[in-house]
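Quick one before lunch.
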Amino acid sequence: MRRFIGLMSGTSVDAVDGALVEFEPRSDFHSHGAGLRTTAFASRPIRPALRDELEALQSPGADELARAALAANALSDTYAEVVADLLAASGCPATSIAAIGAHGQTVRHRPELGYTIQLLNPARLAEATGITVVCDLRAADVAAGGQGAPLAPAFHAQVFRHDGERRAVVNLGGIANVSLLPPGALADPVIGFDTGPANTLLDAWCRRHTGADFDRDGDWARGGQVDAALLAAWLAEPYFGLAPPKSTGRDLFNADWLDRTLARHPGATPPRDVQATLIELSAATVGRACRDFGAERVFVCGGGARNAFMMERLAAHCAPAPVASTQGLGIDPQAVEAAAFAWLAARRIDGLAGNLASVTGARGARVLGLLAEPRPRD
Ligand SMILES: Nc1ncnc2c1ncn2[C@@H]1O[C@H](COP(=O)(O)OP(=O)(O)OP(=O)(O)O)[C@@H](O)[C@H]1O
Ligand SMILES: [Mg+2]
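Model of the magnesium ion complex:
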């Protein structure tokens, strides 16, 4: 049994999530949920000043290099605090952890230009924790012509694929991504892609109009009316019509996108109706991906799984396939993405591929990630 830690801070820029995962030895590794156990989960909010700076760094600005380095240091310190929380909660010593898989904070994602940037200072994290850090997990896939994203489908396929059922796994983070898992018995490849915005636009709009960081349980949106013309205008965004492989982020779906599309929309849609329409946009785009695949069951993870109204609208768009959180499959929906990065760290340490070329469009399977070691090996 080996232990790995996965650390994730996604496009919502809300928190650093961490999972401590125990894996069976490689030869015993089975799919369908067996072979790994999430022993501890921890989460620390990203402080407002750091969140503002990380969000500012998503667009061009002055003195970016130095500001990015300082933000990476500050974020790495929060990552180290989450590691300390996981070790305290589990009672495991740092020496028992084989490696940390650390995502970092995406501030630019332009695979078509050959780069994707996740801010992190891996040497600082390795120094603070005394644990080997695997970072820069997207770069090798991009170098091989892939999107570098989403990476979670390979993990979802490993733990959630079922022999007799077409399953879709949906991660409702800042951006929503789907993993479409044909029955394990079929040779069909796994497909996965970012469907478009989820919490990133909901959070931005909610913050602007209510002052709250997010719309708890979707209660604010629930009281709004969907503006059908606005929804249709949003659905005309070319990204939604692209065939996979495809990935996106705040480079496209940001407050500017919202303001631009609203400015072009005739009439003034009340803010609460805009929020309801944003929920509908996410539910419709995710639902379309699941239906097109013929999903028999849909499992949801990420912060959006806690949004009761989003889950209802998603169920309406995925019908007749039942929609439930990944809890029923044995993994806390909040921990799935962090656990995926623990799994990716294990793949790197074992010299195994971390990507699925059928998902990212890379030229082939690649070992993902660069290492930062805290000290020389004995
Ligand atoms: N109770 C809740 N009700 C509604 N929304 C919630 C609730 N709890 C969390 N959320 C939403 O979930 C978001 C965080 O989700 P999550 O951490 O999965 O996204 P992320 O950091 O973008 O991750 P990733 O990009 O890796 O998927 C919050 O910003 C918020 O919008
Ligand atoms: Mg998050």
